[in-house]
Amino acid sequence: MPSVDRLTALLDQFHVRAHLFHTGVMCGVTRYAAEPGRGFLHVVRDGAMTVTHPGPDGRTRTVAVDRPSLLLYPRPLEHAFQHAADDGSDLVCATLDFDGGTAHPLVRSLPPVVVLPLDAVAPLRPTLDLLFAEVDEVRCGRRLLADRLFDVVVVQLFRWVLDHADELALPPGLLTGLADERLAPALVAVHEDPGAPWTVESLARRAAMSRSAFAAHFKDVVGTAPLDHVTGWRMGVAQDRLRAGAAVARVAVDLGYATPAAFSRAFSQRVGLSPRAWLGADRARRAADTDAVR
Question: pLDDT band at residue 93, thresholds of 50, 70 and 90?
Fold first, then answer.
């Protein structure tokens, strides 16, 4: 893989925030509701349990966890743990709040559930050891440090996924594109500078490929055409900036559109609403989601 940072620009734009909510032994049955915009990261330190959650067809899926493992639920998905009857299971758990919720670029690229034995993700072990040491002692700043260590675990996990995309058999998407040594430089360039006047030709040059070969390979690996990805990334950035209070005219300039009207047309075609209408609907949705969680 060429020397290119595949995660920083992405996670700088679309943050992931972890919050510790449990540490210790669980017994019996533990259920987790599907909360709007929220994922979960569970680390099983010891014990055995059975995990159940609905599959894509609505039928219940069951996974047996009999060794220390990491369980990632990147999207809202109801799930339950049935712990061993004798000693229960020792877990450290955090919620994950993704900017944009299920529209987060990485969330869209991941399967509904990722289950990994800890011995398969050896690079995460030093950080997990620090996390375990922190949660095992009640000291000043314990929760704050645990949250930050979980943040590190999340980044390291995404790094591991990029390095093992073939083994995980991920579907076409952003992660498989970033894992591709030819496509990664082009994708990172777009993520770092979404307002540049990107064309298929200029992106193909980043990948050191011909225009036709690049376009075909991009569609196969990422699942969309190159300029569709550029537009999708720009609109994701636009939504984030509009949500933060940026003016439509400023966002248009930053993302390379000649006029606010041109940006608004592109936004409406992609999102289905004008920027201002979308912002109003987003605020209403977020308020409703907050009320639903309370």
Answer: very high
Beta-carbon neighbour count of residue 82 at 10 Å? 16
The average pLDDT across 266-271 equals 94
Give Cα 256 to chain centroid, integer Å. Answer: 26
Q: Are 22 and 102 in contact (CB under 8 A)?
A: no
Q: Which residues contact 274 (CB under 8 A, 6 or more apart)?
A: 264, 267, 268
Of the candidates 181, 157, 152, the residue with the CA atom closest to the CA atom of residue 168 = 157
Angle, CA of 188, 115 and 79, to the nearest 5°:
110
The pLDDT-based confidence of 276 (bands split at 50, 70, 90) is: very high
**In the numeric block, which tokens belong to residue 51?**
């995990």
CA distance 275 to 241: 11
Q: May I ask the CATH architecture of the domain 180-290? A: Orthogonal Bundle (1.10)
What is the number of other CB atoms lying within 10 angstroms of the CB of residue 9?
Answer: 17
Q: Where do the domains of the chain lie?
A: 8-168, 180-290
For the entire predicted model, the pTM comes to: 0.86
Beta-sheet pairing, 60-65 with 89-98? unpaired
Query: Is 232's pLDDT higher than 70?
Result: yes
Tokens of 237: 């950035």
Give the model's pLDDT for residue 282. 85
Q: What CA–CA distance (Å, rounded) separates 50 from 60?
A: 12
Contact 89/44 with Cβ under 8 angstroms? Answer: yes
Strand 89-98 to strand 49-54: parallel, antiparallel, or no bridges (unpaired)? unpaired
Tens of pLDDT, residue by residue over 170-215, are 889 999 999 999 999 999 999 999 999 999 999 999 999 999 999 9
* CA distances to 54, 130, 161, 270 from 191, in Å: 33, 32, 19, 18
In CATH, 8-168 is 3.30.70.920: no
